[in-house]
Amino acid sequence: MDGPAVDNTTLHRVWRILLIVTALAVATAAYLAPVILIIIGGLILIIIIGRLFYRGRDRYIPNLYSRDIRIYDDAYRNFIVDSLHAMRQCRIPGHTLVWEASHLKGSPPDDSDELLLDLGVWMGWSTRAASDASGRMVYGFDTFEGLVEDWPIEDEMVVKRGTFSLSDPNTQRLMRDTGVTLSDGIPNALGRKVHFTKGGTYETLVPFLAEHPGAPIKLFHMDLDVYESCLHALETCKDRFVIGSILVFDEYLVTNGELLAFYEFQKRYELEWRYRAWGLETWEMNFARVTSPWKRAMYYAFAIAMYLLDGRFIWRILTKRFWHFWLGAHPRDILFVLGAAGQRKSVSLEITGLGKLAGDP
């Protein structure tokens, strides 16, 4: 089942067109100057030979290819490897959250008390997109003041506390360009069936669930980024998960963040589950909401330029990540990652067995 038009992937289609145009230009140049063909052929041969002898395969995972997973214990390392094998069977071209929300459209009956939760909403567009796709009420939670704690992203960087605050000048510019307005520091619904709660999930989730006694969680979108916050949210909501609950993790492929939190959670409660989709994170989808066509084009150009400048898998040949990717990545992962001007690290799964949670009061 394909998602509705609410899932906008124009940015990535533009990126793929640029790749095709570049490939055609290189092919033309190689035809006119055979020495270029010899150089390209030599580089490809080096990579092929390197892949035959490279010992780092399966040690560095999408989409960062940064941390050697051998630093983890055997159980977690095996979980990561098994997860990647399963996820490769369910790649999707679009955004995982929208894909899952679109599958909820038309069900259940209007009197259902099922909850759709979005944890970590920034300007609220992920929440609105989930509502548009599902046709249902979605509840969003955020401090709207940025990260509540520092976010270490494996061995690459630390995103500081307060990042993603709505008071940031760049965020305010994007809010204006997408038509987002605030009331008492909370984004307005803009005509969607959404409700936003301001505050950290440490303080807001328990009261919210108390206001909806016994209501099961059907869709749980996790975009809190930080391991501690993710694990806390899972623990807080555990009694509301049921067979068929869909969990979507926006930053799943960060081994010391959401992935680790879910690993520990499912292990503790002996959950049964299956992966459903591996696709795009929601961040760059905000650019598709820019109301002015020419400004939207500028945002797309900016996003592509930033992706090229980052160059982790394209031109930064002196970095370890470049070689982890080209020598160790699964061939289809290479195509999957390079086919988007953004990050494919959002993953969804479905709970198929409650394990120890079935016996909790």
Automatic annotation (TrEMBL):
Residue stretches spanning the membrane: 17-50, 297-318
The highest taxon in the source lineage is Bacteria
The cross-references to Gene3D superfamilies, in alphabetical order and at most eight, read: Vaccinia Virus protein VP39
Q: What single Pfam family name could you report for this chain, choosing any that match? A: Methyltransf_24
Q: Keyword annotations for this protein?
A: Membrane, Transmembrane, Transmembrane helix
InterPro entries from the entry?
A: SAM-dependent_MTases_sf (IPR029063), TylF_MeTrfase (IPR008884)
Q: What is this protein called?
A: MtfA protein
